[in-house]
Amino acid sequence: MDDDEAELSPQESLRLIEQQSSAASRRLTPDPRALYVVWGIAWLVGFGALFLHHGLSGRPYAPISIGLALAVLFGMMLLAWAFTGFLLWRTGAPVRGVSQQRGMMYGFAWPIAFFTLSMIAGRFGAQLPEAEKSLLWASGSIMLVAVLYVAGAAVWNDWPMFAIGVGMAVLNAVGTAAGAGWHALLISVGGGGGLVVSGFLLSRRAPR
């Protein structure tokens, strides 16, 4: 075979580079469907339990105590955190350099933010009625998630992530103004359901 025949044309070289880049991106990027669907289910179930406890008029819709509702919420979130950590560890292990540093700093921002929230909510929540204390923890948590989503979108130039963060912020603000029951309902259905739908939409758009 002649050297000219063995060489790739510029178009073929570009196509090969694009194929390799797409394959590398799929290996190193967590499946958005997996992340969003898992967290969406956690919110649907967890905040759904809070909604059943509070109700829209202040009367419970099911015999679920606040302790049980919070246990369900935190349990679902811990499972989602464990799954997220495992998935990020698998996909992020080969990454080095600036991308790894950005991911590490962004990852540390989550526990730092929630530790700060726990100190603030624990201090002032003790002086509030049960429903308002629950709302303080829930709205504060969703506020942090929304801000961190927007910040993550800015780091990775991810417009879908930015839109999800803004949507969470809007639902959180409206729900907080309406009360504990409405907040739980909006975050369960709008936030959790929205994450599930977003995960499937993003997975359909992802290159195969």
Number of helices: 8
Structural class by SSE content: mainly alpha
Query: What does the overall shape look like?
Result: globular
Q: Secondary-structure element order, as H and E?
A: HHHHHHHH
The oligomeric status of these chains comes to single chain
**Low-pLDDT stretches:** 21-28
> What portion of the residues fall into strands of 2 or more residues?
under 5%
Mean pLDDT, to the nearest integer, reads 82
Q: How many E strands?
A: 0
User: Helix amount, in percent?
Assistant: over 70%
How many domain modules? Answer: 1
Distance between the termini: 34 Å
For the largest beta-sheet, the strand count, sense and barrel status come to: none
Instruction: Report Rg.
Output: 21 Å
Overview of the molecule:
The chain is mainly alpha-helical. It has one domain. The chain is 84% helix and 0% strand. It has 8 helices and no strands. It has helices spanning 3-6, 10-28, 32-54, 66-92, 98-125, 130-156, 159-178, 180-205. The longest helix has 28 residues, at 98-125. The protein is globular, with a radius of gyration of 21 Å. Mean pLDDT is 82; it is low at 21-28. Keywords: Membrane, Transmembrane, Transmembrane helix.
Q: What's the SSE blueprint?
A:
Layout: H1 3-6, H2 10-28, H3 32-54, H4 66-92, H5 98-125, H6 130-156, H7 159-178, H8 180-205
Give a short summary of the structure.
With 208 residues, the protein is mostly helical. 84% of the residues lie in helices and 0% in strands. Keywords: Membrane, Transmembrane, Transmembrane helix.
